[in-house]
Write a structure and sequence with these properties.
Number of strands: 22
Radius of gyration: 26 Å
Number of helices: 21
């Protein structure tokens, strides 16, 4: 029996020890953050409103894609779980952009939505040092300039040395369907109030963003004969560098199109559209617009592509990718019924828009720790990003740095030439975002270096030194690097002549006039290393190496010139990263700086000249002025 009076709360709260790290929210960012902190040795608590929805795929049942697939492979290379869980729940796999160079190749998987969430929970429950609690966090506590814990809806104060906020779309979330509005962070789940107000009172700046999701329909009511089938790749390479269980069969997706009649029907709902009538104030994602936004912005187009994606192995639910909408349910249904194959469709639930609070990420350090409050970290949509992959990569970085911070160790950060994760965080910190940020390969200036195939070589050793990536991962990377080196050495040493005649003839390439090194022959267009091994007896010994190492060696040889060029550029620019700007630097005394540069420098407080050069609105002349002054 609890003691009477105020001591009752203390008695009840004794069920909670003081944690090293508390992670708020169990979406993709929260799950990776909690796993990283706990696996590195921090006593960690993951608080979520609903333990049945961990790592919920709130929107499309898919992971990866252009730019995003590279991020998942980087998370895996660091020792995260997103790649493993994706492989274990894949129902279809495709490597996108295979017609282009390897710098553009991007893996993408359709997943079983329910199985994905279940596998994530199983993985988290198997981690030592990780506790769970189902409750709503409504506020934070701090002492002086450092966070000290969280306050929950059930009245608990749980202490921690560090807190990671990964609140997704739940902060004061409002769901819009036509003229209907309801508070919610996701359909059928309540929103959260208190955290935004708490942080704003501490001096943080917040704003609003908007995202949306399409209707889900009953796959049994669709006529697939009127659609184009989209099968998965025959070769499933997956995302994880470990030996994960990849599917032995796959499910097809389908493609259909809207038409003029569909567009005219959608327009009948514009007078009730929360977006067009001004009820939604937040900015939506530019690269994933709603269907009503598409037909409004691209009025000249007579049709838009619709991807029909199954939600799992054992469900008939179908995700209508490309038909995100916040129009009234009746209008959504009528328009859907006019799409080829959807004439008799049955809707499981309508699409909706959701508006939520976020905190402009210029308020963060590269470690994702806030500048205002020590040991408080933000990750995911709270930073203005959109997408599971963007959230997950922020989560693992925030979780790693929360652990490092409470143990008084230097933060773990990644540069733009080291990872897409580095590009994403650098963009957020320096440029901020006033619309949901999404990763694309075009955002990275070092695409040839940051390929999806070499993420383990780039990142695993860094993470291993920090205490996250396992010995197993490190051993695999070392073996892979050794094999690549041996393959390259053999290809540069072995000479070929007569045996290559028929091979070169078969691909329409000029015959050899003299003995030529195998590496030189490999440079010819339309010729791959596997073709050479199968056709040339001199190269049969290469069958002893893994396919992964063979592909990596092939890329290294074929794109050697481009790789070296990017490495040289990265080395040249890295000199600016080594020039540290003191945190107390007074920009106001540099009157020759432009007014905008001075304002941006004072707000963002760049740590290096390299960072200063990438801040939006800062000109090269401003950087030169800063460089000259610091040189003095």
């Amino acid at each position: 029996m609890a003691p009477a009076g105020n001591s009752a709360l203390v008695y009840f709260c004794s069920m909670f020890p003081k944690y090293d790290v508390i992670v708020v929210g169990a979406g993709h960012a929260g799950c990776e953050a909690a796993a990283a902190a706990a696996n590195m040795g921090s006593k960690t608590l993951l608080i979520t409103m609903n333990m049945q929805n961990m790592a919920q795929m709130s929107c499309n049942p898919a992971m990866g894609g252009i730019g995003k697939g590279q991020i998942i492979r980087e998370i895996d290379a660091l020792g995260g779980y997103s790649g493993i869980v994706t492989d274990e729940t894949t129902i279809q796999f495709r490597m996108l952009n295979k017609s282009k160079g390897p710098a553009m190749w991007s893996p993408r998987a359709q997943n079983d939505r329910m199985l994905f969430s279940m596998r994530w929970r199983q993985a988290l429950e198997n981690i030592e040092n990780l506790d769970f609690y189902q409750d709503t966090v409504v506020g934070l506590t701090r002492k002086d300039d450092a966070v000290t814990g969280v306050r929950t809806g059930l009245g608990h104060h749980i202490e921690a040395k560090a807190v990671v906020l990964t609140n997704g779309t739940f902060l004061n979330g409002v769901i819009h369907i036509g003229t209907k509005q309801s508070k919610g962070g996701r359909v059928a789940e309540k929103s959260v109030s208190g955290i935004t107000e708490n942080l704003v009172a501490w001096g943080f700046e917040s704003d609003r963003l908007k995202t949306g999701t399409p209707p889900r329909v009953d796959g049994r009511s669709l006529d697939y004969s009127k659609m184009e089938e989209q099968r998965g790749d025959e070769e499933i390479t997956g995302f994880s560098y470990l030996d994960t269980q990849l599917p032995k069969k796959q499910r097809s997706c389908w493609i259909t199109y809207t038409n003029k009649q569909v567009h005219e029907t959608l327009k009948t709902g514009f007078d009730e559209s929360p977006m067009f009538q001004g009820r939604i104030k937040g900015t939506g994602p530019r690269y994933c617009p709603s269907i009503e936004d598409k037909i409004n912005r691209f009025a000249e187009r007579e049709r838009h592509q619709i991807f029909v994606e199954p939600e799992g192995w054992n469900t008939y639910e179908v995700y209508v990718n490309g038909f995100s909408s916040s129009l009234p349910e009746k209008v959504q249904y009528q328009a859907l019924s006019q799409i080829p194959g959807f004439e008799n469709c049955k809707m499981f639930r309508p699409g909706y828009a959701i508006e939520y609070d976020y905190f402009p990420p210029t308020q963060l350090k590269f470690s994702l720790e806030t500048k205002l409050v020590k040991n408080l970290f933000f990750a995911g949509q709270i930073n203005g990003t959109t997408g599971y992959e963007e959230a997950a990569c922020q989560g693992i970085i925030a979780g790693m740095n929360a652990h490092l911070s409470v143990n008084e160790q230097d933060p773990f950060t990644l540069k733009r030439n080291e990872a897409y994760i580095g590009v994403l965080i650098d963009d957020l910190i320096n440029k901020g975002t006033d619309e949901p940020y999404r990763m694309f390969t075009s955002r990275a200036e070092y695409r040839t270096l940051l390929r999806q195939d070499n993420a383990d070589i780039r990142l695993t050793e860094k993470s291993y030194r920090m205490g996250l990536a396992s010995q197993q991962r490190m051993n695999r990377v070392r073996k892979k690097k050794e094999e690549i080196g041996e393959i390259e050495k053999l290809l540069r040493e072995i000479s070929i002549f007569e045996s290559a005649t028929s091979l070169l003839e078969s691909i329409g390439s000029a015959p050899l006039s003299q003995k030529t090194k195998a590496a030189q022959i490999l440079l010819r267009p339309a010729l791959g290393i596997r073709q050479m091994i199968d056709a040339l007896p001199e190269l049969k010994m290469l069958n002893n190496f893994s396919d992964e190492a063979l592909k990596e060696a092939e890329i290294a040889i074929k794109y050697e010139v481009y790789i070296k060029k990017e490495e040289e550029l990265a080395a040249k620019l890295s000199t600016l990263e080594d020039l540290i700007i003191p945190s107390s630097f007074n920009y106001d005394k540099l009157t020759s700086l432009s007014t905008e540069a001075r304002q941006k420098f004072n707000k963002i407080k760049p740590q290096t000249l390299g960072q200063a050069s990438r801040i939006s609105g800062v000109n090269p002349s401003d950087v030169q002025i800063l460089m000259v002054y610091m040189g003095r």
